[in-house]
Design a protein that fits this description.
Blueprint lengths: L13 H10 L4 H6 L1 H11 L12 H8 L5 E7 L8 E7 L17 H14 L1 E7 L1 H7 L1 H14 L7 E5 L11 E4 L7 H24 L5 H4 L5 H9 L11 H8 L3
Helix pairs in contact: 5-8, 6-7
Length: 257
């Protein structure tokens, strides 16, 4: 459902209609339903639709209507950091026990994420998996992300028969029926749940690594290239948990060679 807060349909707003009219000369209803249109309009017009959208269960209901019973939302976290694994989660929600407040994990406070994660463990089938730094370097970050997604799906207590994948690409080796959902963590409750589970579990990994390798600030930056992290790379050097093919780390390794 492409609607904003308080039941207001953002497709009916004047800025949206004007943007559609300018963006392409096509049927507005068809264009408005296109997830590519939403992504393009937000980037081109700066209208910020993701700020008014709230995730719902419409994608899951549509899959149920086509005969799929166990619909898993799948999302990953940790593509961009300079250190640590990439983590993915798969979550199958019970339509009658959906936690209140599910949203893109980036839009939630840490206490809210933790509360929702604990609730999800009680009422949903949740599976989290990682792809290691070694796998990221061997495969590349995209393929490693997809590997983590496949592992998360394989780890569900009862296999899913359909998957909603955040983003615009289905993992190459995925065998079950699936669809992609652009900005899915802000549109699908199952993908929102997966984004929360992946974020919580990757953060736990980085907190543990921060204790083993103090000084990089991983307990707060979670491996991303913050100022403290970059300064520590200069002063302390590279650890086995750094992604050596990522440019800032690679440059650090070979700057004197």
């Amino acid at each position: 459902m492409l609607s904003g807060g308080e039941g207001r349909d953002v497709r009916a707003s004047l800025p949206f209609l004007c943007a559609v009219d300018i963006f392409c000369d096509c049927d507005i209803a068809v264009f408005a339903r296109s997830q590519f249109a939403w992504a393009g309009l937000e980037l081109w017009c700066g209208l910020g639709f993701s700020r008014v959208m709230k995730p719902d269960f419409e994608f899951e209901r549509a899959a149920h209507a086509r005969g799929f019973e166990r619909v898993a939302g799948v999302d990953e976290v940790g593509r961009g950091p300079l250190a640590g694994p990439v983590t993915a989660a798969a979550v199958v929600l019970d339509p009658d026990r959906i936690p209140e407040g599910l949203n893109d994990s980036k839009k939630l406070s840490k206490p809210a994420r933790e509360r929702l994660y604990e609730e999800l463990l009680q009422v949903a089938d949740v599976s989290v998996a990682h792809a290691s730094v070694e796998e990221i370097e061997e495969l590349n970050i995209l393929r490693a992300s997809h590997l983590a997604m496949l592992r998360a799906l394989e780890g569900l207590k009862i296999p899913a028969d359909y998957a909603l994948i955040d983003g615009n690409m289905i993992p190459r080796d995925l065998t079950l029926p699936a669809e992609t959902v652009i900005k899915g963590d802000a549109r699908s409750q199952s993908i929102s749940a997966a984004s929360i589970a992946a974020k919580i579990c990757r953060d736990c990994v980085m907190l543990s690594l921060a204790q083993q390798h103090p000084g990089y600030g991983w307990e707060t930056n979670m491996g991303y290239g913050s100022k403290k992290h970059m300064e520590a790379l200069q002063k302390i050097g590279v650890t086995p948990h750094h992604r050596r093919l990522f440019k800032p780390v690679h440059n650090m390794l070979y700057q004197d060679k």
